[in-house]
Amino acid sequence: MNILSPTYIVGWSENAEALPGESSFTIDVHEASIELYAIWKRNQTSIIFNANGGEGTLEAINVNTNEIYTFSENEIAKQREELSKEYYRFVGWSENADALPEEASFAIEVNETSVELYAIWERKTAELTFVSEEGTEKTESVLQGEEYIFSASGFEREGYEVRFIYNGNEYEVGEKVLIESERIEIEVVWEGEERKVNIYNQGELIGSESVRYGDELTLPTYELENHTFIGFNDKSDYTGNLYKETIDILFEEEELNLYAEYERNQTSITFNANGGEGSLP
Length: 281
Hints:
By secondary structure, this protein is mainly beta. Helix content is 4%, strand content 48%.
């Protein structure tokens, strides 16, 4: 009689509940009739663990064949303690080294004499929080272990350049930083774009001031004989805007020309007929 089973016979015993170590193929026959019970032992499968690119090792274990072996919480905790991979999270096992994280499991079907299980890893994510003086500007989820490229997207302000400060270092748009932790706070600051103000007096360039968008520039004053200085005009023909003591740097152009403007001093003449008749305006 062929008995198909995930077990194999290790001996006989008159006790149906005998343990494998209590069975034998040598039987003491002392009665006219005896009934012998086959004593079975489960076939064992050796599970070999492969860190699959991670660090750490686990000793192989033997489990019953033709079963679904589910790792206990204690076993899983130990596996997570013993195995590691930078920027990755251990999520389970698979017989396929290239299995996706969602295909990994801690319940393994065992139906061979030896099984090699590969640790399956999932890339950790990081949450970036961008903050300014006004509060939280933006949050973004990215992968750990990758270089993040700073972008102006979401931080645009007319006339201003955005800068990012992280871990004591300042970054410009286009620069990179390695993401190494789960939560990162990045300070966002804006600096006015560079502008240039050229000062002209009587058709001659007197000097230039380097300023930034959003700044306030205090203007100089000049003197001209028989004239009164009234400010600066942004048109050379004096048909533009007149600025007196200061100017707010809010123009879009990279350069602004200002021209000193004067008014001719006037003298009032009063006419006296000096004893005569008549008057003049």
